[in-house]
Amino acid sequence: MNALALLAAFFTLWADDLPVRRAESPAKPPAGPVVVLVSADAEWRALRQIWPQPPARSSPFGEWIEREVGAGAGRRPVVLFHGGWGKIAAAASTQYAIDRWHPSRLVNVGTCGGFRGRIERGEVVLVERTVVYDIVEQMGDAAEAIAAYTTDLDLSWTGTDLPKGVRRGPLVSADRDLLPADIPRLEKQFGAVAGDWESGAIAWTARRNGVPVLILRGVSDLVGEGGSETYGNLAAFEEGSRAVMKRLLDELPFWLTRWDPATAP
């Protein structure tokens, strides 16, 4: 056996005596704070009127602040983040929030348009399913395409003793305001009583990342045969947004404590 072969045999035997090292998965970052996503500009303006402090910081999407909510032992830090309106901004800003803060939970609070005669102004939809209904599939099965972006939310933790004026149900989303002619179909096909622009994108993105999400949408206006009182009247939408955001922010500690009872005072 020549010198080269002897050297190779030595290193082979030496390597066999070394302990086996298994490949380790990269360590996951520790779970971060609860991140509260706010979509529409009017909703964020309302939030900043209610909570003008601390000063806002900027992101590629919108402003954000960090503050404590709740009282006593139940106080906890949350990040409140203006992600932007519409499905594109909602999906992108949700992913940004997940990548930046690694939230333990996501919450989306905001407004929705209610179906007149099916829900009242000021009621809150605790969203159990989101449906993106403005998908137009001409080449295949349209129902299958809509189902691909339909997201069921886990509400097993919510219980049944909810704040007055809160109802569980589905919410339909599209990059458009509700059209009166669409309402009978949306009610019949999806069981909806309200619609918005962003919830479908937020819920779908959260699910793809495995992050629990809570969506609460308050009815700012009612849409019926004649449209909505806010159509062509932004001031009315601003007013409705202020009322909705005041209620949702007041009730936010309730939902966070219910979701994580270990932090209850």
Write the layout of secondary structure elements.
Elements: H1 3-16, E1 32-38, H2 41-50, E2 64-69, E3 76-82, H3 87-101, E4 103-115, E5 124-132, H4 142-148, E6 151-152, E7 166-173, H5 183-190, E8 194-196, H6 199-209, E9 213-224, E10 227-228, H7 234-259
Parallel strand pairs: 1-3, 1-4, 4-9, 5-7, 7-8
Antiparallel strand pairs: 2-3, 4-8, 5-6, 5-9, 9-10
Helix pairs in contact: 2-7, 3-6
Could you explain the architecture of this structure?
The protein is of the alpha/beta class and 265 residues long. The chain contains seven helices and ten strands. It has one domain (31-263): Nucleoside phosphorylase domain (Rossmann fold), CATH 3.40.50. A five-stranded mixed beta barrel has the order 4-8-7-5-9, surrounded by four helices. β2 (64-69) and β3 (76-82) form a beta hairpin. α2 packs across α7. The N and C termini lie far apart (77 Å). Mean pLDDT is 89; it is low at 6-29.
Order of helices and strands: HEHEEHEEHEEHEHEEH
The count of β-strands is 10
Oligomer: single chain
Number of domains: 1
| SS class | alpha/beta
Average pLDDT rating: 89
Low-confidence stretches: 6-29
Helix content: 25-40%
Q: What gyration radius follows from the Cα positions, in whole Å?
A: 24 Å
- The best one-word shape is globular
The helix count comes to 7
Distance between the termini: 77 Å
CATH class: Alpha Beta
**CATH architecture title:** 3-Layer(aba) Sandwich
Measured by DSSP, the beta-strand proportion falls in: 25-35%
In the CATH hierarchy, the third-tier topology is known as Rossmann fold
Strand order of the largest sheet: 4-8-7-5-9
Q: Describe the sheet with the most strands.
A: 5 strands, mixed, barrel
